[in-house]
Amino acid sequence: MAKKQFFHKQVSSSTNKIKTAWRLIKDSLGNLHYDDTVNEIKSENGLLENPIEIADAFNEYFINTITNVNIKHSDIGKASKLLNNHKLGNIVYMETIPVTEAEVVSTIRSLKPNGASGYDGISNNILKLCAQNISSPLTYIINYTLTTGIFPERCKLAIVRPIHKKGGKNEMNNYRPISLLMAISEIFERIMYNRLFQHFESNNYLTTAEYGFRKEVHIENAVFSLLDRITTLLDKRQHVGGIFCDLTKAFDCVNHNIRLHKLQYYGIKGNSLTWIKSYLGNRKQTEGLPITKQSRSGNIIQVESSSEWSPTGINLRTFAFHNIPE
Amino acid sequence: MNGVPQGSILGPLLFIIYLNDLPCGLIQDNLPIIYADHTSVLLTANNDSDLKNKINYELNYLTEWFSANGIALNMEKTNLMKFTPNMRQNELFQIIYQNKLLTGTNNIKFL
Fold first, then answer.
1. pLDDT average, residue stretch A98-126
2. Which of A63, A140, A167, A238 has the most CB atoms less than 10 A away?
3. Can you count the helices (H) and strands (E) in chain B?
4. Is residue A298 pLDDT above 70, yes or no?
5. What number is the average pLDDT over the span B46-51?
6. Is A158 within 8 Å of B58 when comparing Cβ atoms?
7. Over the Cα atoms of chain B, what is R_g?
8. Contact B4 A251 (CB under 8 A)
9. 3 state DSSP class of A143
């Protein structure tokens, strides 16, 4: 009885109820501790046991999977013609609003408290603790990147961890890659995110058809809209049909030039546009196996610029990379 | 430099901006519902043949939009469905699109 009360209290007082519930279930079942060490892995060169070799093999494997995604043919002329269907009226250009110390502090405070860190080893928790002390230099640096339109190269380095999905633990294709970026990089991104989102939101540029991203709109709203429309129309004796598209690796297929064209169309120009270009270009990754921390510093492999790092099957929920088990 | 960076904050927003103009070319009465990359369109018409025409039109538009933007629409896994008030009336719903016979499904997992 006491135990039941304890669990109830834990769940109801937590911010992420589902996560807490699962954690409690796992804890009480015992023996289910996530073992993420990789002791051996099959590769083209036979069975690898050396942690550094394993890390290198994974890195190569993940990069190749992305390079092998067929870069679909696209047509920027046609895409741009279709884009013109979105009538904007007067185009409002996005202004580069300088960041203030207060905004930097509140951005740091809004980071999720967790211990996972990128290759610099600085976690969100550490940043939160020293928010006041670092806000002044950080404000200067962020404003500098905003006015020069350059996103720091170092912030683009991602540690990629293989997370075991299913099947045999020595097969590389049974792993899913998870990217860990520097916590500092998240602050830069959030500052730009706020500006970009604000621009789209205040000018009503975002389509109401999108349920994944708008403020105070959730997945439940999408389901409700669908069902509500179906029942309303059926009541009016209308014929109702639906097309449910299946897109293959849509996140990987975003064409860079078309994307830049669209950003310009929506009024992003000058330094903000070059900042985003710089943010997207020249990304690097290093393999970070939990057992081979030393390999982080050594084996930095550059992802070719044409193969922007972005694994398959990601959706908005998996973007929360903090939730990977430590 | 194609794709969006995984684990990032800006990635999802940039992706949504990419898809943002997709609904603008659809027929006005139809309701597009997008959640991240899940794209669905709900269509309405006064009669069955009109509905089929509209589905054909929208499929054409969607195919054109995705191919211009370099995104692969997997027709094998793209589903059509006709909603009827009475479950027993589970008529076979078929349309011909680009000389191919497409059959509607009776159940679908939405999102």
1. 88
2. A63
3. 2, 6
4. no
5. 92
6. no
7. 16
8. yes
9. helix
